[in-house]
Amino acid sequence: METIRVIIIDEQPLFREGIRATLQRMGDCEIVGESTDAADVLEIARTCNPDVALIDAGLTASDPLEIARQMRHSSPRLAIIVLTPSEDEERLFQSIKVGAAAYTTRNITADELMDTVRKVSHGEYLIRDDVLAKPQLASRVLKSFRELTVEEEESEQKDLYSPLSSREVEILDYIARGNSNKEIAKSLKISDQTVKNHITSILKKLSVNDRTAAVVHALRHGWIKMHEE
């Protein structure tokens, strides 16, 4: 069982202690550092090679999104979880733009936190599925993913093999454009239920929980491409 190395970036001592205690219960998680100072955090990331970083979006001592951006730049495989005090579309968008793998409110339960840490450490991207239900936000978010994908193409070789059928890739492409199931069904001249069946198959094949995660997974593996508007 591989150890998941985690850095905690949260300035509230009690909440930080709760995170630490929760992750230690996992049995395969090691806390490699705790700090809110940007320089300290980047040094810990450089020397300790963490797999996951938990960042408080409400930091006052440092800019949490700038820390996330710099950490992702120096450690592209680092999975970042942004913990936010409240639902905020703009903060969600900015978090995704700097490469966060997950975005959740601070009222997350211990079990949810452990599950999130484990999933992002395995390369999953846990973005709320309702993002794609909001066309304007979906357009901004997916454009950012396209930009991130382009940035990473030089340093990471794409897995050109896709476990998805051509129809499933086509449906994912429609989803990436912000289309609803009903709109996809109309465009492809198939029933709503057939679209749902395809999406269920896609989620199962990619081992993801929602449509947004499936799109992100496909983008990062080069199976679909975002098109300029």
From TrEMBL:
Transcription recorded as keyword: yes
Keywords: DNA-binding, Phosphoprotein, Transcription, Transcription regulation
SMART domains, alphabetized: HTH_LUXR, REC
GO molecular function: DNA binding
Residue span(s) of domain HTH luxR-type: 157-222
Positions carrying 4-aspartylphosphate: D56
Pfam families: GerE, Response_reg
Domain Response regulatory: 5-121
InterPro entries, A to Z: CheY-like_superfamily, NreC/VraR/RcsB-like_REC, Sig_transdc_resp-reg_C-effctor, Sig_transdc_resp-reg_receiver, Tscrpt_reg_LuxR_C, WalR-like
Domain of life: Bacteria
Protein name: DNA-binding response regulator
Top-level taxonomy: Bacteria, Bacillati, Chloroflexota, Ktedonobacteria, Ktedonobacterales
